[in-house]
Every structure is written in C-alpha cells, then in structure tokens.
Amino acid sequence: MKIRFCAILALLAAFCLISLTQDANAKKEVFELDEVYPLAKDGTIYLRTGDADVKITGSDRKDVHLIIDYEAKKSGIFWDSNDDPFEVDVRAENGNLYIREYDQDKVTIGVVVTNEFIRYDITLEVPQEAKLKITGDDDNYDIRDVQGRIAMSFDDGEALLHNCIGGDYDFEVEDGSIEMIGGSGMLSAFIEDGELFIEDAAFDEIIAEVEDGDIEIATTLKDGGRYRLGSDDGDIMLTVLSGGGEFQAVYDDGRVRASGEFIVEDEDEEFTLYKLPGGTAKVKLRTEDGRIKLSR
After folding, report:
1. 109 class by beta-carbon count within 10 Å (0-12 exposed, 13-18 middle, 19+ buried)
2. Which of 18, 77, 116, 169 is most buried by a 10 A CB count?
C-alpha cells in the first residue's frame, strides 16, 4: 500500500513538472518598431538602452529612421511570472529625439529560471550633423559617418566609431573599450577598465585616462595643441602622424622608449623629456606600471 501511494505521488510530481516546463517554454516576448522621426538641424539624439546591439549611420537624410527588433524568452520551471512588458519610449521634442528603454520589473516564482535575449537590435539612420548623447549598460555600438558631437557613457560594452569627424567627443566607460578610426578636434575619455584605440586621427586636444588598460593612439599634432594621456596599470603607445613638439613622459614602475627622431632633452629614473622637430604641441604621458612608446 505504501509503495502504491509513493508511485502515485511520483506520477503527480512528474505531471506537474511537465506542465510547468511547458508553461516556461511558452514565455516569449517580441517588440518591433520601424518609424521615422523629425530632428532639428542642430538637434541631439538621446539614447538610453541596455543589452542592445546598436548601429548608427550618418547620411544625407534630414530626419531619423529608427528600427528596433527585440525578442526574448523566459525558460525554466516556475509557478507564476508577472513581468512588465518590454517597452521603448520615443519622443520628438524641442527639435531633439529621445529614445529610452523602460526599466522592467521581473517577478517570478519558481526554480531554475533564466531570461534569454534572442535578439535586441537597434538601427538608426540619422543626419550626418546630428549630435549623439548615449547612455548604456552592456551594449555594443557601431557608429559611422556622424559629424556632430558624440557623448557616450556606458558600462560593460564596446564602441566602434568610424569616420566620425565632428570635432567633439566625450567618453566615460566603466568596463569596456573604445575604438576610433578617424577623428578630429577635442577628445575627452575616461575608461576604468578597458582599452582606448585610435588610428588615423587629427586631434587638436586630447585628455585620455585609463585606470586598468592600454592606450594606443595615432594622430597628427596641432601646433600649440595639448595632449595628456595617462594609464595607472597599462601601456601607452603614441604614434605622431605629423607635427612635433615637447613630450614629457612620467613613469613610476615602468619604462619609456622612443624612435630615433625624438631627441632626449632631460631624464632621470622616473622622467624623460623629449623634443620632436616639426611643431609646438605639448604632450604629457604618465603610467604607474606600464610602458610608454613614442614613434613617428
């Protein structure tokens, strides 16, 4: 009798488990948007998202074409789920465009529950002169041919900027990397844990600081321009495409190396002063535990 009762309980448990698993497999969410929005000639696009793959392309259009393609699913074994739906608020206001992903409250009762993104793609085709102000968390960005000011603040992501020569860039990254191909004007960048890589640029001024990671920049130097590069625990590699000036290298527990065109003016155990003929730029480089390499 006892064995029969245990067998019935086992069958009931198996039935409940199958029912719960089927319920879990049915939890899928889709969000799609394909719209065109106005933007003033001097307008800014404000974008706030998380976990998205974002592609932004500048073109000769005068408005903004926005496409969002989102699909996610919940899997596992659970008895109840009361999640807020995925939503993105898009508003054209005062000549600007605001794109903001709503925060989702997820309340699930069960065990072994996972939320999985199948895809989350955001595509923007914007006017070339558009300005961008981007805030993200675990996003990846591909930005091309945008000539307006670009400000980015994100955590745990990567950004590639190609042929964005608007002249004003402000980056703040907690755990991620920035790669630029082309660039001009003023660059300000702070990266807590990651890398800054720039090639084929023509900056007038750079302030770049990486706490734990490398800086590699290839740029022309403007006469009278000021450039300050620092890394607490990483290497700094600066390639001068054209121009020249004065280079101060400071290193606590590292070393510095420069190609033959750089002339040593002064040096001690933790400091070297170079001159490079061909210009009047002022360059300061600092690393606590890394290497500094200068080349032309």
Report:
1. exposed
2. 169
What is the C-alpha separation between 140 and 159, in angstroms, rounded? 6
At residue 21, what are phi and psi to the nearest 5 degrees?
Answer: -65, -40
Torsion sign, CA atoms 261, 267, 271, 275: negative
The β-bridge partners of 170 are: 151, 188
**β-strands 96-101, 44-50 pairing:** parallel
152-193 pLDDT tens trace: 999 999 999 999 988 899 999 999 999 999 999 999 999 999
Distance CA 292, CA 251 (A): 8
Q: Could you tell me the sign of the dihedral formed by the alpha carbons of 58, 59, 61, 65, in that order?
A: negative
DSSP class of residue 103 equals P
Query: Which residues are bridge partners to 202 per DSSP?
Result: 184
19-65 pLDDT, tens digit each: 444 444 457 889 999 999 999 999 999 999 999 999 999 999 999 99
Pair 151, 190: CB distance under 8 Å: no
Name the CA dihedral angle for 22, 23, 24, 28, rounded to a multiple of 10 degrees.
Answer: 110
> For residue 121, what are the contacts with CB-CB under 8 A and spacing of at least 6?
52, 53, 55, 67, 68, 69, 70
